[in-house]
Automatic annotation (TrEMBL):
NCBIfam families on file: DNA-3'-Pase, HAD-SF-IIIA
Keywords: Kinase, Transferase
Pfam families on file: AAA_33, Med18, PNK3P
MF terms in GO: ATP-dependent polydeoxyribonucleotide 5'-hydroxyl-kinase activity; double-stranded DNA binding; polynucleotide 3'-phosphatase activity; transcription coregulator activity
InterPro entries: HAD-like_sf (IPR036412), HAD-SF_hydro_IIIA (IPR006549), HAD_sf (IPR023214), Mediator_Med18 (IPR019095), P-loop_NTPase (IPR027417), PNK3P (IPR013954), Polynucleotide_phosphatase (IPR006551)
Identification of the protein by name: Bifunctional polynucleotide phosphatase/kinase
Gene Ontology CC, one term: mediator complex
Gene Ontology BP terms: DNA repair; regulation of transcription by RNA polymerase II
Region (Disordered): 435-456
Domain of life where this protein originates: Eukaryota
Keyword Transferase included in the entry's annotation: yes
Length: 871
């Protein structure tokens, strides 16, 4: 698999604000994630893969494990064993030290679940402007991770176990993009001791040190592509990242990986682990001076990776230090740099080697090779664009040219450089004495570990057994009932007296007190911004439960209307027998607990999809009206009803969906602060209001802004999706005899050009109803106009993005306004247009450019639909 990525650095003081923005973008609360990462080094003979455990012979190797072992064959990689841990695991005692083995407060290292993960170092994609890297992973059998990794070809001894660290952050999922806002934490360690084994217990989280002392976070946006060699899949994933970059441009600057920064991060991790730092060491630690090597030999022993030597070479390359090092300075020391007698060949990761060499120029590379005794294989240059080497060879001095020829075989390499231009490297660095490690052509004989033995946990309890054998007539009805509407809307209902329904006097008008859920009725008990499990909740304010009970006693029907896009309605583990997803089960558990504490008649409606039920759309309200028979004339007291929500369009709010929903329904709206705490209303200015585009006089005549000037002419539209282009054609240009060419219908530009030429040849003027965002695209049509020797004109639709998204949503959700039955466009479509857009100019060859500002036109029914809030 391949992973396409963009990154952004986030200062600590902007972390909370960005969390809110990402929650609004993804329409979900993030999943807090803490990963414990153990780093192992592969140690296997070329072409030999050993993935058999305990003498097993059955080949049960999964597809992911097969791909992983193929990538690692014959090369020396650093891989990770990754395990998810809870915040409560830090500072907890080991299970063996507790009186109760199943104590939730204890950390059970022996039963920690791990997965083996390999990710290539991100490399900048110079052509696509995104970062790409190979990746693979495989689940490890439950048990001792060291024993498992050792049997898989990863020896576990003190010199091979490099380090362990922790990644902590929050995960969002937006369409097919995973957003991970995180930071790296390091364990405190005793420099005098060697990390011979992973920690069996975890220290308190507060005792871990930040890799970045400033506390900044890294935002990683990643799209996984199953087949990285498929240009179509890569292009689609890249476009999705571009769209996300555009949407977040006001918050963060997403960019491709900076190799230099990646290298610094890795070096910081290893320096933190291997260098004993005190004032004396910081002042005197310098391996570039031979007289200090033996004077401070204890320090040398603590740094088998030689971090400072590497930093010196890199700094020379990027010309940061004022005093540059010379080639003579890096002359190999017979003992200190002897590859056979120093631990560097066993410990130093290839990932860092690649990044170092990638950063260096062709004149600096020999210095590094001399300093560490490394040898480069041809495969390194297969990835490093040999064509560039071809033009730079003449600039090298004679000694370095001789070295290049002897080591690389440049003549042979240059003969095939174009064929190797875009190949990735897998075996870029070989060490002297190891030889040229080549991948085995066959994996025959490689076997996998035996099937994972699952621990079967019984879910049967005494109460469930008793309930099973109790006659139906004697069972007490459940207080909480659940149902799913149209595979989208979750409806939960709580009856304070099981089996009864609310009864009201005949003819009594009902008032509804409607509330949002998260950050309105409840917040997290842990103090975190987002809940981590079903039990992590508390009342938003102590006044909330009593106020809700008071509303019930006053005759209000209390309901909750909540957007819950993160909930999946599909089971995520069918083989286990689970009938619903974990996210759905967690949501039900939390809501049921809230309902039981209130113990009043209460219903909750939760929209899980971007459809008619999602606020600000009114599908949940319509379902509520139907459930309580309030859709009949006179049953609902709309003026006496209200809605309370936190998405109110205030500066700190992630959206305005709650306020817009209340406006669509006609409900009085209040924020939680206003309703529960009596705060004064804040002034809110909506970024988009559909009413501003509706003519105040519905009977006023609208004069067409375009007329036909020639018997045969070509007209092209320029405007965002949803700008009103097709509607403008049907109303004003079709009556004038123009034929329409549309790529949504014809599917490709060549087909559009073919059909347009056929119409022009037949003597019919043509309108090109496409977005035509850039001058390069429009040039195809100006060329056709020149070919037919006819004028070409442009109609430029100026509709802003918010209006276009509104039009698209209205069109997709209302068949009467959607004659071509178009589906709703993904958000990336609008971002992609904005990225490519260049305002049309007469210099492109147009006879004239007509600007069309959007104004709604339609009957009263269409107006009522269009004037609502939809996004």
């Amino acid at each position: 698999m391949h992973e396409l990525l963009l990154f952004a650095s986030v200062p600590a003081n902007q972390h909370y604000e960005l969390l809110q923005q990402l929650a609004g973008l993804a329409a979900m609360q993030p999943r807090h994630r803490i990963e414990r990462r153990l780093v192992f080094k592969a140690s296997r003979k070329t072409g030999r893969i050993n993935t058999r455990l305990g003498g097993g012979t059955q080949d049960v190797q999964g597809a992911e494990l097969q791909r992983l072992t193929k990538m690692l064959t014959g090369a020396t990689y650093y891989t990770h064993a990754v395990g998810l841990v809870r915040e409560s695991d830090f500072g907890a005692a080991a299970v063996a030290e507790t009186t109760a083995p199943d104590d939730d407060k204890a950390y059970d290292f022996e039963n920690q679940l791990w997965r083996m993960e390999w990710r290539d170092i991100p490399e900048a994609g110079t052509r696509s402007a995104v970062t790409s890297r190979l990746m693979a992973n495989a689940l490890l059998p439950q048990g001792d991770v060291v024993t498992t990794m050792n049997s898989w070809g990863y020896e576990y001894i003190s010199t091979l176990f490099v380090t362990e660290y922790v990644i902590e952050g929050d995960v969002f999922v937006y369409n097919d993009t995973t957003l991970f806002l995180h930071r790296i934490l390091n364990f405190a360690h005793d420099a005098s001791s060697s990390p011979s084994s992973p920690r069996r217990t975890l220290p308190p989280l507060k005792e871990l040190s930040l890799l970045d002392p400033s506390g900044s976070y890294l935002l990683q946006a990643a799209v996984t592509v199953q087949d990285g060699s498929n240009p179509g899949m890569v292009k689609t994933a890249t476009q999705h990242l571009f769209g996300l970059k555009e949407q977040l441009k006001t918050a963060v600057k997403l960019e491709q990986a900076d190799p230099e920064q990646n290298l610094k991060t890795l070096l910081d991790i290893f320096q933190e682990r291997w260098i004993y730092q005190d004032e004396k060491a910081n002042k005197c630690y310098d391996f570039l001076r031979e007289d200090l090597v033996w004077q401070y030999k204890p320090i040398v022993d603590r740094d088998p990776v030689k971090i400072l030597t590497l930093r010196a070479v890199i700094d020379e390359s990027i010309q940061r230090p004022e005093k540059a090092l010379t080639c003579e300075t890096l002359k190999p020391r017979p003992i200190f740099f002897d590859i056979k007698t120093t631990p560097v060949s066993h410990i130093f990761p290839c990932e860092i080697q690649w990044m170092i060499i990638d950063l260096l120029g062709y004149k600096e590379i020999p210095k590094l090779l001399r300093a560490f005794g490394w040898v480069l294989s041809d495969s390194y240059w297969s990835r490093r664009l040999p064509r560039d080497l071809k033009f730079e060879l003449d600039d090298l001095d004679n000694v370095e040219i001789d070295w290049q020829f002897l080591t690389l075989g440049v003549e042979k390499l240059l003969q095939r450089s174009y064929g190797l231009l875009n190949r990735r490297r897998l075996l870029p660095v070989d060490r002297r004495g190891v030889g040229d490690m080549k991948r085995s052509s066959s994996l025959a004989g490689a076997v996998s570990p035996p099937p994972l033995k699952r621990k079967v946990e019984s879910t049967t309890t005494k109460s469930s057994v008793a309930s099973f054998f109790t006659p139906t007539s004697q069972k007490k009805p459940e207080k909480v009932t659940w149902r799913i509407v149209n595979k989208s809307l979750i409806v939960g209902k709580y009856a304070s007296e099981p089996g009864t329904s609310e009864k009201f006097e005949s003819g009594m008008r009902r008032r509804v007190a409607a509330f949002d859920f998260d950050s309105t009725l409840i917040s997290t008990a842990s103090g975190n911004r987002f809940a981590r499990d079903a039990k992590d909740w508390k009342w938003w304010n102590g006044k909330v439960p009593e106020r809700l009970k008071q509303l019930n006693s006053e005759g209000y029907q209390v309901v909750v209307l909540s957007n819950q896009k993160k909930i999946s309605l599909q089971s995520d583990n069918i083989k286990s027998g689970r009938t619903e997803s974990k996210s759905l089960a967690t949501f039900k558990e939390k809501v049921s607990a809230v309902m039981r504490q209130l113990d009043i008649p209460l219903s909750i409606y939760a929209a899980t999809q971007a459809d008619e039920y999602r606020k600000p759309r009114t599908g949940m309200w319509k379902e509520l009206m139907d459930d309580y028979d309030l859709d009949l004339d006179g049953r609902l007291d709309l003026k006496g009803s209200f809605f309370v929500g936190d998405a109110a369009g205030r500066p700190a709010d992630h959206s305005c969906s709650d306020r817009d929903f209340a406006s669509n329904v006609g409900l009085d709206f209040k924020t939680p602060e206003e309703f529960f705490l009596g705060a004064k209303p804040e002034q809110v200015i909506r970024k988009f209001d559909p009413m501003s585009y509706i003519n105040g006089d519905p009977d006023a005549a609208v004069t067409p802004t375009f007329s036909k000037l020639h018997s045969l002419e070509l007209v092209i539209f320029c405007g965002s999706p949803g700008a009103g282009k097709s509607t403008f054609y049907w109303k004003y240009l079709q009556p004038l005899g123009y034929e329409r060419v549309n790529q949504d219908i014809l599917k490709s530009r060549p087909k559009c050009i073919k059909v347009a030429k056929e119409h022009l040849t037949a003597g019919n003027s043509v309108v090109v109803d496409n977005t035509n965002a850039g001058a390069e695209t429009r040039a195809y049509w100006t060329q056709i106009a020149q070919e037919f020797k006819i004028p070409i004109r442009c109609i430029y639709f100026t509709s802003p993005p918010a209006l276009c998204k509104h039009n698209d949503a209205v069109r997709a959700a209302n068949p009467l306004l959607n004659p071509e039955s178009r589906a709703s466009l993904p958000g990336i479509a609008f971002g992609d247009f904005a990225r490519r857009f260049q305002e049309p100019q007469l210099s492109e060859g147009f006879e004239d450019i007509t600007k069309v500002d959007f104004t709604f036109e339609g009957d009263e029914e269409a107006k009522n639909v269009w004037s609502r809030f939809w996004v």
